[in-house]
Amino acid sequence: MDLINNLTFLQIMAGVFIGIASGYLGSFMILRRMALVGDALSHVALPGIALAFLLNVNPFIGAFSALFLGIVCIWLIESHTELPTESLVGLFFTVSLAIGILITPENELLEALFGDISKISLDDTIISVTFSIVVIAAMKLIANKFMLGTLSPDLAKSARINVSRLNFIFLILVAVIVALGIKAVGTLLMGALVVIPAISAKNISNNLKSFTLTSAVFGLVSLVAGIYISRLLNYSPGPVVVLVSGLIFILSLFLKKE
Question: Mean per-residue pLDDT for 59-79?
Fold first, then answer.
Protein backbone atom coordinates (compact mmCIF):
# COMPACT_ATOMS: atom_id res chain seq x y z
CA MET A 1 0.00 0.00 0.00
CA ASP A 2 1.56 3.30 -1.03
CA LEU A 3 1.64 6.41 1.16
CA ILE A 4 -1.45 8.04 -0.35
CA ASN A 5 -3.60 4.95 -0.03
CA ASN A 6 -2.34 4.38 3.52
CA LEU A 7 -3.25 7.97 4.39
CA THR A 8 -6.70 7.46 2.92
CA PHE A 9 -7.16 4.29 4.97
CA LEU A 10 -6.25 6.13 8.18
CA GLN A 11 -8.65 8.95 7.31
CA ILE A 12 -11.50 6.56 6.56
CA MET A 13 -10.93 4.48 9.70
CA ALA A 14 -10.95 7.58 11.88
CA GLY A 15 -13.93 8.99 9.96
CA VAL A 16 -15.98 5.81 10.34
CA PHE A 17 -15.73 5.69 14.12
CA ILE A 18 -15.92 9.44 14.73
CA GLY A 19 -18.93 9.66 12.42
CA ILE A 20 -20.80 6.84 14.14
CA ALA A 21 -20.06 8.13 17.65
CA SER A 22 -20.90 11.75 16.72
CA GLY A 23 -24.23 10.80 15.17
CA TYR A 24 -25.15 8.47 18.02
CA LEU A 25 -24.35 10.99 20.74
CA GLY A 26 -25.95 13.76 18.71
CA SER A 27 -29.32 11.99 18.83
CA PHE A 28 -29.35 12.29 22.63
CA MET A 29 -28.31 15.94 22.38
CA ILE A 30 -31.32 16.63 20.17
CA LEU A 31 -33.65 14.81 22.56
CA ARG A 32 -32.21 16.88 25.40
CA ARG A 33 -32.62 20.08 23.34
CA MET A 34 -28.88 20.73 23.52
CA ALA A 35 -28.26 21.17 19.79
CA LEU A 36 -26.33 24.41 20.20
CA VAL A 37 -24.30 23.11 23.13
CA GLY A 38 -22.20 20.83 20.91
CA ASP A 39 -21.43 23.72 18.59
CA ALA A 40 -20.51 26.05 21.43
CA LEU A 41 -18.39 23.46 23.23
CA SER A 42 -16.28 22.96 20.12
CA HIS A 43 -15.16 26.58 20.42
CA VAL A 44 -14.20 26.05 24.06
CA ALA A 45 -11.57 23.61 22.77
CA LEU A 46 -9.72 26.26 20.74
CA PRO A 47 -7.38 27.54 23.53
CA GLY A 48 -6.41 23.94 24.30
CA ILE A 49 -5.62 23.28 20.65
CA ALA A 50 -3.53 26.44 20.53
CA LEU A 51 -1.50 25.31 23.55
CA ALA A 52 -1.09 21.87 22.00
CA PHE A 53 0.40 23.46 18.87
CA LEU A 54 2.70 25.65 20.97
CA LEU A 55 3.84 22.70 23.13
CA ASN A 56 4.01 20.30 20.17
CA VAL A 57 1.65 17.71 21.67
CA ASN A 58 -1.33 15.89 20.16
CA PRO A 59 -4.19 18.39 19.57
CA PHE A 60 -6.66 15.88 21.04
CA ILE A 61 -4.96 16.22 24.42
CA GLY A 62 -5.14 20.00 24.33
CA ALA A 63 -8.72 20.08 23.05
CA PHE A 64 -10.03 17.61 25.62
CA SER A 65 -8.16 19.31 28.47
CA ALA A 66 -9.75 22.67 27.63
CA LEU A 67 -13.18 21.06 27.19
CA PHE A 68 -12.92 19.16 30.47
CA LEU A 69 -11.94 22.32 32.35
CA GLY A 70 -14.79 24.24 30.70
CA ILE A 71 -17.35 21.54 31.50
CA VAL A 72 -16.28 21.30 35.13
CA CYS A 73 -16.62 25.08 35.47
CA ILE A 74 -20.03 25.05 33.75
CA TRP A 75 -21.25 22.17 35.92
CA LEU A 76 -20.07 23.83 39.15
CA ILE A 77 -21.56 27.22 38.31
CA GLU A 78 -24.84 25.60 37.21
CA SER A 79 -25.00 23.69 40.51
CA HIS A 80 -24.77 26.91 42.53
CA THR A 81 -26.85 29.27 40.40
CA GLU A 82 -30.16 29.36 38.55
CA LEU A 83 -28.45 29.94 35.21
CA PRO A 84 -29.28 27.36 32.49
CA THR A 85 -26.56 25.27 30.83
CA GLU A 86 -27.03 27.03 27.49
CA SER A 87 -26.27 30.45 28.98
CA LEU A 88 -23.11 29.25 30.67
CA VAL A 89 -21.91 27.44 27.57
CA GLY A 90 -22.49 30.65 25.62
CA LEU A 91 -20.29 32.55 28.07
CA PHE A 92 -17.43 30.06 27.87
CA PHE A 93 -17.87 29.78 24.10
CA THR A 94 -17.25 33.46 23.40
CA VAL A 95 -14.43 33.88 25.92
CA SER A 96 -12.65 30.71 24.76
CA LEU A 97 -12.98 31.64 21.10
CA ALA A 98 -11.43 35.04 21.77
CA ILE A 99 -8.54 33.55 23.77
CA GLY A 100 -7.98 30.80 21.21
CA ILE A 101 -7.78 33.18 18.26
CA LEU A 102 -5.31 35.39 20.13
CA ILE A 103 -2.87 32.62 21.12
CA THR A 104 -3.15 30.20 18.17
CA PRO A 105 -0.10 30.45 15.88
CA GLU A 106 -1.16 32.18 12.66
CA ASN A 107 0.04 29.34 10.42
CA GLU A 108 -2.02 26.83 12.46
CA LEU A 109 -5.19 28.92 12.83
CA LEU A 110 -6.96 27.64 9.71
CA GLU A 111 -6.31 24.03 10.71
CA ALA A 112 -7.68 24.69 14.19
CA LEU A 113 -10.80 26.40 12.85
CA PHE A 114 -11.59 24.11 9.91
CA GLY A 115 -9.65 20.90 10.61
CA ASP A 116 -7.34 18.94 8.34
CA ILE A 117 -7.95 15.20 8.44
CA SER A 118 -5.25 14.73 5.78
CA LYS A 119 -2.71 15.23 8.59
CA ILE A 120 -4.08 12.36 10.65
CA SER A 121 -1.49 9.89 11.92
CA LEU A 122 -1.65 6.28 13.01
CA ASP A 123 -1.72 7.44 16.63
CA ASP A 124 -4.64 9.77 15.84
CA THR A 125 -6.53 6.90 14.24
CA ILE A 126 -5.96 4.62 17.23
CA ILE A 127 -7.14 7.37 19.58
CA SER A 128 -10.21 8.04 17.41
CA VAL A 129 -11.23 4.38 17.19
CA THR A 130 -10.61 3.64 20.88
CA PHE A 131 -12.36 6.65 22.35
CA SER A 132 -15.28 6.46 19.91
CA ILE A 133 -15.96 2.89 21.07
CA VAL A 134 -15.66 3.98 24.71
CA VAL A 135 -18.13 6.84 24.18
CA ILE A 136 -20.70 4.63 22.47
CA ALA A 137 -20.40 1.92 25.14
CA ALA A 138 -20.64 4.45 28.00
CA MET A 139 -23.69 6.13 26.46
CA LYS A 140 -25.42 2.80 26.04
CA LEU A 141 -24.86 2.06 29.72
CA ILE A 142 -26.46 5.30 30.91
CA ALA A 143 -29.00 5.78 28.09
CA ASN A 144 -32.12 4.55 29.91
CA LYS A 145 -31.45 6.51 33.11
CA PHE A 146 -30.37 9.54 31.11
CA MET A 147 -33.59 9.51 29.08
CA LEU A 148 -35.69 9.15 32.24
CA GLY A 149 -33.86 12.11 33.73
CA THR A 150 -34.51 14.06 30.53
CA LEU A 151 -38.22 13.24 30.25
CA SER A 152 -39.08 13.36 33.95
CA PRO A 153 -36.40 14.67 36.35
CA ASP A 154 -38.76 14.29 39.32
CA LEU A 155 -39.49 10.65 38.51
CA ALA A 156 -35.78 10.00 38.03
CA LYS A 157 -35.00 11.49 41.44
CA SER A 158 -37.74 9.41 43.06
CA ALA A 159 -36.05 6.37 41.52
CA ARG A 160 -32.82 7.50 43.21
CA ILE A 161 -31.13 8.39 39.94
CA ASN A 162 -28.45 11.04 40.31
CA VAL A 163 -29.54 13.28 37.43
CA SER A 164 -26.78 15.82 38.02
CA ARG A 165 -24.08 13.17 37.82
CA LEU A 166 -25.58 11.71 34.64
CA ASN A 167 -25.63 15.18 33.07
CA PHE A 168 -21.96 15.61 33.97
CA ILE A 169 -21.03 12.22 32.46
CA PHE A 170 -22.97 13.10 29.31
CA LEU A 171 -21.13 16.40 28.94
CA ILE A 172 -17.80 14.58 29.33
CA LEU A 173 -18.79 12.17 26.54
CA VAL A 174 -19.72 15.15 24.36
CA ALA A 175 -16.33 16.69 25.14
CA VAL A 176 -14.53 13.52 24.01
CA ILE A 177 -16.41 13.41 20.70
CA VAL A 178 -15.89 17.12 20.07
CA ALA A 179 -12.16 16.75 20.77
CA LEU A 180 -11.96 13.80 18.34
CA GLY A 181 -13.98 15.46 15.59
CA ILE A 182 -12.05 18.72 15.60
CA LYS A 183 -9.21 16.98 13.74
CA ALA A 184 -11.65 16.24 10.93
CA VAL A 185 -13.79 19.39 10.65
CA GLY A 186 -12.29 21.98 13.02
CA THR A 187 -13.72 23.97 15.89
CA LEU A 188 -16.04 26.11 13.75
CA LEU A 189 -17.79 23.18 12.06
CA MET A 190 -17.76 20.42 14.69
CA GLY A 191 -21.19 21.32 15.99
CA ALA A 192 -22.70 20.40 12.64
CA LEU A 193 -21.25 16.90 12.89
CA VAL A 194 -23.30 16.09 15.99
CA VAL A 195 -26.41 18.10 15.15
CA ILE A 196 -27.19 17.63 11.44
CA PRO A 197 -27.12 13.79 11.33
CA ALA A 198 -29.38 13.73 14.38
CA ILE A 199 -32.02 16.13 13.05
CA SER A 200 -31.93 14.30 9.70
CA ALA A 201 -32.56 10.99 11.47
CA LYS A 202 -35.38 12.53 13.52
CA ASN A 203 -37.22 13.32 10.30
CA ILE A 204 -37.48 9.65 9.30
CA SER A 205 -37.46 7.76 12.62
CA ASN A 206 -40.46 6.40 14.48
CA ASN A 207 -38.87 5.32 17.77
CA LEU A 208 -35.81 5.94 19.91
CA LYS A 209 -33.88 2.88 18.72
CA SER A 210 -34.28 3.71 15.03
CA PHE A 211 -33.52 7.36 15.76
CA THR A 212 -30.17 6.69 17.44
CA LEU A 213 -29.19 4.05 14.89
CA THR A 214 -30.11 6.19 11.88
CA SER A 215 -28.31 9.18 13.36
CA ALA A 216 -25.15 7.09 13.75
CA VAL A 217 -25.42 5.90 10.13
CA PHE A 218 -25.90 9.45 8.87
CA GLY A 219 -22.86 10.59 10.86
CA LEU A 220 -20.83 7.78 9.31
CA VAL A 221 -21.96 8.57 5.75
CA SER A 222 -21.35 12.30 6.20
CA LEU A 223 -17.74 11.89 7.28
CA VAL A 224 -16.69 9.09 4.94
CA ALA A 225 -18.40 10.53 1.87
CA GLY A 226 -17.11 13.99 2.72
CA ILE A 227 -13.53 12.73 2.95
CA TYR A 228 -13.75 10.95 -0.40
CA ILE A 229 -15.37 13.87 -2.20
CA SER A 230 -12.89 16.37 -0.75
CA ARG A 231 -9.98 14.26 -2.00
CA LEU A 232 -11.52 13.96 -5.46
CA LEU A 233 -12.12 17.71 -5.74
CA ASN A 234 -9.00 18.72 -3.78
CA TYR A 235 -11.03 20.71 -1.24
CA SER A 236 -10.64 21.03 2.52
CA PRO A 237 -12.46 18.04 4.09
CA GLY A 238 -14.23 19.90 6.91
CA PRO A 239 -16.62 22.07 4.86
CA VAL A 240 -17.30 19.20 2.43
CA VAL A 241 -18.26 16.88 5.31
CA VAL A 242 -20.73 19.46 6.60
CA LEU A 243 -22.18 20.04 3.11
CA VAL A 244 -22.71 16.29 2.65
CA SER A 245 -24.44 16.22 6.01
CA GLY A 246 -26.62 19.14 4.93
CA LEU A 247 -27.54 17.32 1.72
CA ILE A 248 -28.61 14.28 3.76
CA PHE A 249 -30.85 16.56 5.82
CA ILE A 250 -32.49 17.94 2.68
CA LEU A 251 -33.10 14.41 1.40
CA SER A 252 -34.57 13.43 4.77
CA LEU A 253 -37.23 16.12 4.37
CA PHE A 254 -38.60 14.28 1.35
CA LEU A 255 -38.63 11.00 3.29
CA LYS A 256 -40.10 12.55 6.42
CA LYS A 257 -42.41 10.25 8.35
CA GLU A 258 -46.12 11.07 8.38
Answer: 80
